[in-house]
Design a protein that fits this description.
By secondary structure, the protein is an all-alpha fold. The chain has nine helices and no strands. About 30% of the residues are buried. This is TetR/AcrR family transcriptional regulator.
Length: about 200
């Protein structure tokens, strides 16, 4: 998700990254509506002319923030790109749980936060769906790999299984955050992996 006026120099990239980082933090904590361009500029130390060099409007900034959220999520789940056996799916769930244990309490999914605030906006909903589908695609590829190796039933549908797994992840994240208890997330992940393993060949 590159935006108009993308930086082409190292200095420009650092400035753009600082703007996106500041916007992502503010939008995560306060929401998009409460995050003005002026607040982003103050937090990032950038000037208004720099902001509008990289982003035509706030909508483009939100698009960049969604991408930044997704990159952060995937970075915290490195095994998701290497789901080459059933044990890897267990390691992936442990990576998710570890993020919330390290924080000392379950934290809100940044994409889920945006979906709750802006999910009725068709443009933002499309961007969020694209992000979720990229997240899901790693699960689907892992399941396809297992099917190719004969470890997943030939009639299993990796795309549907990946979607169901993502639904469990998101529901578990939501309840865990609301209740400040990692148990709902742990249970949801356990159910998701048990469902996947039920399709083993």
């Amino acid at each position: 998700m590159e935006t108009q006026g993308a930086a082409v120099t190292p200095r420009g990239r650092r400035t753009r990254d600082a703007i996106v980082d500041a916007a992502a933090e503010l939008m995560y904590v306060n929401g998009v509506a409460a995050t003005s361009v002026d607040k982003v500029l103050t937090a990032s130390g950038a000037g208004k002319s720099q902001m509008y060099h990289y982003f035509k409007n706030k909508d483009q900034l939100v698009e960049a923030v969604i991408d930044r959220f997704l990159r952060g999520i995937l970075a915290n789940q490195p095994t998701i790109t290497a789901l080459d056996d059933w044990a890897a799916f267990d390691r992936w769930t442990e990576e998710i749980l570890d993020v919330h244990r390290r924080a000392g309490h379950p934290i809100a999914c940044p994409l889920g936060n945006l979906a709750g605030e802006l999910g009725d906006d068709p443009r933002v909903a499309a961007l969020l769906d694209k992000a979720y589908r990229e997240w899901e695609s790693h699960l689907e590829r892992g399941l396809l790999s297992l099917r190719d190796k004969g470890e997943l039933r030939a009639d299993a549908d990796p795309a549907r299984l990946a979607q169901a797994t993502m639904a469990c992840v998101q529901g578990g994240l939501l309840l865990a955050h609301i209740r400040q208890d990692v148990t709902p997330l742990a249970d949801a992940l356990e159910i998701a992996v048990a469902h996947l393993r039920s399709q083993a060949a």
